[in-house]
């Protein structure tokens, strides 16, 4: 199968525009890094948000108990200096005594215990609650610089959750005086991170300034301005005219075109996000439907030219995958059944399953339209009559929750966590994303979170990923590539987990 390399109008005009603008004027003259984000920034409190944009901002404004090294996947001290497992369900954490909030006050163990107990409380209604409530019973202050965490049961990913999700707040932040205010930090954020908020116009602009009392390594750049610019063409023009220095989620064609000019540098790095097709193997939409037949699901896998999709539609460091997890994730065993591109074998399997003349398939998708169309074309070639339903994510989520979707094209970034747990629990436990109906698989996946023995966890995930492949519950597609355009004067290091860390940027 040959996949055309689509070129958007803005990409086609990139070189011409670059020539008309001349050399970019963006630079370090005022020591201000200007970044563009298409998604509206409406709430600065990551305890009450999701999405990649908010993770990026939280890394600028907040600090967590531990830091996860994206290269080694080791947990390093941050606000915490160390930890000690008293027993399997009791964790003691020791804190630094020099951590300052942006208002100048010193962080205390009471602040840490309050933050975790609040997030775990039903009253919080926090977006982070689901992460904490599954393992935290309560947190208590045990000394002038220590906090004890009591777990509900054995849970091996506590340090990961402490590193990735919970942003520390002053005691009483959300319920001062007995009045609950979940938006207390949405605009006037008081964090402990390397940058503090100077001004914020929701949906328009956020201005951050280096926090001189930050306890860790100070960022090289003094000020960061984040502008909401929904249109990618406008972002492009701003980059070329010097209005911004950094843009991400850049379409490959635009990144390559503009990156070939003196106006910008194209950076491409790995991303833990993967693409896949989820198949209704259980038969929620049709108890006797074709997708309940293993040979049909295997045929769908064989029919897809994932290598060309990765190369031409995603590009950069993207690669075809054959597992229901990213190859870089802990426990993502690569020695499992693979289905290389073989349309003739796909046709033979369909015939064996009794569908030699094909069958109609409603395929849902919400992003990467060119990918969805390529998938449809591949399946059509082997005789499957695809009805592609390209919808908004909200519509897909609602239909999936109602069990009305036989197959859909999905992606998952695992929050930048290089552990199979970050994808397996969501997609193969008690979630509407799990269309396998395989209760034994569900129990297997959850059992990996009931042991702190890493060797046992690895073996469990290996077994689970192997079963998913053998049963073809998914049709894995490819890993993603992170594409950026930056000012030629900006040095922006790329990390292996694909999460942009603007706090590590510097001027050349």
Automatic annotation (TrEMBL):
Gene Ontology CC terms, in alphabetical order: ATP-binding cassette (ABC) transporter complex; outer membrane-bounded periplasmic space
Any one Gene Ontology molecular-function term assigned to this protein's record: peptide transmembrane transporter activity
GO biological process, one term: peptide transport
Compartments, as annotated in UniProt: Periplasm
Signal sequence, renumbered to the chain: 1-26
Keyword Signal annotated: yes
Stated family: Belongs to the bacterial solute-binding protein 5 family.
Protein name listed in UniProt: ABC transporter substrate-binding protein
Organism: Pseudooceanicola pacificus
